[in-house]
Amino acid sequence: MATTSADPSPSTSNDDLEIRRTVVADGAAMWNLARECGLDLNSSYAYLIFAADFAATCRIALLGGEPVGYVLGYQPPERPDHLFVWQVAVSSRARGRGLARRMLEDLLHAHSEGTTLEATVEESNDASRALFAAVARAHGGTLSWTEGVSAEDFPDDHPSEPRLEITGMDLH
Ligand SMILES: CC(C)(COP(=O)(O)OP(=O)(O)OC[C@H]1O[C@@H](n2cnc3c(N)ncnc32)[C@H](O)[C@@H]1OP(=O)(O)O)[C@@H](O)C(=O)NCCC(=O)NCCS
């Protein structure tokens, strides 16, 4: 179900699980989850700003009212029909029950049919690669890889981040 740009009401809600757009107050939980899940940690300020100003492309998942996962995303200004997933995280206590996939699908349902999903994923991140492959497979999309961000471009010893694109998904 598509949500309006200012509506933070749940777009998925059943049993104890709620998935909804973010509001500024979710930024703190997103920062905590990023830290807990071992992701590249941005500043707490960055999560607050994203939760507030990029709410249309971010999601938070709550289980029994507790934040257990989030998606941080944006629409690249040069590619407005693309959705770039910067980070996706699910707390270890809530993994393996389809939460990450449901957050991505919730986000895709709120965007136009034909939206291309983009992300960069390290070669060693099997869980993340399996997640995007599962989303592509479930919706008949085509997943392809390009070089993405190479290790040489990072100022630290960060490994390269190949870029994936999923096109042609049918979300009905
Ligand atoms: C990646 C991550 C978000 C997946 O969350 P999740 O809620 O457990 O994933 P889901 O249950 O939605 O699984 C989606 C698909 O990926 C597969 N998958 C998930 N974790 C997997 C793993 N560790 N190994 C293999 N496959 C895995 C599932 O089997 C499922 O495929 P299916 O639909 O064909 O059965 C979670 O493991 C995580 O937070 N990891 C640490 C942070 C991270 O690396 N984020 C990604 C980079 S930004």
Describe the fold and architecture.
The protein has 172 residues and is of the alpha+beta class. Helix content is 26%, strand content 30%. It has four helices and eight strands; from the N terminus they run ββααβββαβαββ. The protein has helices spanning 27-36, 44-53, 99-109, 126-138, and strands at residues 12-14, 17-21, 59-63, 66-74, 82-90, 116-120, 142-149, 161-167. Helix 1 crosses helix 2 and helix 3 (99-109) crosses helix 4 (126-138). It is globular and about 40 Å long. Mean pLDDT is 94; it is low at 1-5. Coenzyme A is lined by residues 37, 39, 87-90, 95-101, 125-128, 130-131, 134.
Outline the fold blueprint.
Layout: E1 12-14, E2 17-21, H1 27-36, H2 44-53, E3 59-63, E4 66-74, E5 82-90, H3 99-109, E6 116-120, H4 126-138, E7 142-149, E8 161-167
Parallel strand pairs: 5-6
Antiparallel strand pairs: 1-2, 2-3, 3-4, 4-5, 6-8, 7-8
Helix pairs in contact: 1-2, 3-4
The structure holds coenzyme A (COA).
Coenzyme A (COA) binds at residues 37, 39, 87-90, 95-101, 125-128, 130-131, 134.
Q: List cofactors, ions and other ligands.
A: coenzyme A
- The CATH class assignment is Alpha Beta
Write down the overall mean pLDDT: 94
| End-to-end separation | 11 Å
Overall form: globular
- Work out the strand percent: 25-35%
Order of helices and strands: EEHHEEEHEHEE
Query: Count of helical segments?
Result: 4
**CATH architecture classification:** 3-Layer(aba) Sandwich
Parts with pLDDT < 50 across at least 5 consecutive residues: 1-5
Radius of gyration: 15 Å
Helical content class: 25-40%
